[in-house]
Specification:
InterPro entries: DUF285 (IPR005046). This is BspA family leucine-rich repeat surface protein. Pfam families: DUF285. With 113 residues, the protein is mainly alpha-helical. It has 2 helices and no strands.
Length: 113
């Protein structure tokens, strides 16, 4: 497994692409997707856009340093996991985050002030 303390935006997109190409190989290299770590300033923009079969549990992700989640799940038809525990107070952009997605979870506890 690759010894990385956290993913930066470009590294995250590479790992994501590898995960969708071959989940087993990607997990050997990066660990299970639900345990990935992210550097401050990382962007999740379009991370799972049009990934219509994605529905992994990523509720444990520490997203406290993430700055953008725009279009993150746009057209991610199956994604419907509980993200209520995410700390999104530093996210500046959530434009179209769940656009055209079937997501239907309670996010009322998110601090988006």
């Amino acid at each position: 497994m690759l010894d990385t303390s956290c993913f930066k935006t470009d590294e995250l997109k590479t790992a994501r692409d590898e995960w969708f190409d071959d989940q087993e190989d990607a997990e050997d290299e990066y660990g299970p997707i639900g345990e990935w770590k992210f550097c401050d300033g990382t962007s999740f923009s379009k991370l799972f856009e049009e990934r219509d079969r994605f529905n992994e549990d990523i509720s444990g992700w520490d997203v406290g340093g993430v700055t953008s989640m725009s279009d993150m799940f746009d057209k991610a038809d199956l994604f419907n996991q509980d993200l209520s525990g995410w700390n999104v107070k530093n996210v500046l952009n959530m434009h179209r985050m769940f656009s055209d997605a079937s997501f239907n979870q309670n996010l009322s506890e998110w601090d988006v002030s």
